[in-house]
Amino acid sequence: MKVLVINCGSSSLKYQLIDMVNEEALAQGLVERIGIEGSVLTQKVEGKDKYIVKEEMKDHKDAIRLVLEALVDENNGVIKSMDEISAVGHRVVHGGEKYKESVVINDEVKANIEECFKLAPLHNPANMIGIKACEELMPNTPMVAVFDTAFHGTMPEDAYLYALPYELYEKDGIRKYGFHGTSHKYVSQTCAEVMGRDIKDLKIITCHLGNGASLCAVKNGVSVDTSMGFTPLEGVAMGTRCGNIDPAIVTFLMKEEGLSVDEVNDLLNKKSGVLGISGISSDFRDIEDAAFNKGNRRAQLALRIFEYKIRTTIGAYAAAMGGVDAIVFTAGVGENGPETREKCLEGLEFLGVEIDKEANNVRGKIREISKAGCNVKAFVIPTNEELVIARDTLELIKK
């Protein structure tokens, strides 16, 4: 049984075709510049050269048509016909309060996803475009929506409610939702497997550290708190996002700098974080080069702020859960940044965790990086959000 996983952005589309018999990715690809001049599809298949298609794609329907053609291509594809695709799993960023687990897509589900457009205006509309395009091209293939927010649906009220007038929650749904849920779910479950323990007996802090970054407190297998909030802007400092700030800064900037609502939103989401502090880049590789090789003070400061916010959030989540058994690093920076991992755990020895410098010299592989005998284990675990989507899809269509 083969599942096609689709992740649509506003002008891009990532995909994987996964054979669920052995959970092997048969093909993975990226479509870029949809609706823009210079559209291109790049597909990778193990043991084959990259397959590149440069063709105008005016919309996501064109893009998905080319994806399907690439998958069945006589020389570069991996299946003989579209009939081999048993189901399609769609990543949907926001499910609001309605969806605390993945769901088979029908008209009601699509209507509810559209209701969440106001909560995720950059993502949900693109996700919906992908769903409708697949439905047109594959009308008899079951479709499943897997929500970034669903894993955090287990958070208690005291974790997800803000201290605002309660009517705003009732009327407008203003609350913490959390994101990166498929990643936090995958790495926490994998951590339990690596430890040989039942996840229901563990307290795990997962650190998804990339250009977007979030942490999650996973107690007994469920999310009880996470750092991103009503939007992905809340939490730790990130590549271009500011993370937690005094909300009065927003009105101050509007008054003193004469910024509009959209301009403030743009500043906080796209011009802040380590980019704003360093003045160099949102790419941690560029910042680390400037900090370590060129002695750039602001680059060094940006890294310290990023690490400090993560370290203090780890401490907060250990308090929230009444302890911690394991800390997991994942995503681009988490998987490939030994220095960042070390600094994020520096000073947390009192919790019972200490880095093994030799073990920590690893990139992109599952490995324990804490010293032998530590009460709290630390791990690097590469994330696999596409596999979570495929697993949920398979489970639902089997029912």
TrEMBL record:
Annotated positions binding substrate: 91
Pathway where this protein functions: Metabolic intermediate biosynthesis; acetyl-CoA biosynthesis; acetyl-CoA from acetate: step 1/2
Catalytic activity: acetate + ATP = acetyl phosphate + ADP
Binding site for Mg(2+): 7, 385
Cofactor: Mg(2+); Mn(2+)
Molecular function terms from GO: acetate kinase activity; ATP binding; magnesium ion binding
Highest taxon of source: Bacteria
Keywords: ATP-binding, Cytoplasm, Kinase, Magnesium, Metal-binding, Nucleotide-binding, Transferase
UniProt xrefs under InterPro entries: Ac/propionate_kinase (IPR004372), Aliphatic_acid_kin_short-chain (IPR000890), Aliphatic_acid_kinase_CS (IPR023865), ATPase_NBD (IPR043129)
PANTHER family, per database record: ACETATE KINASE, ACETATE KINASE-RELATED
Name of the protein: Acetate kinase
Name of the gene encoding the protein in the UniProt record: ackA
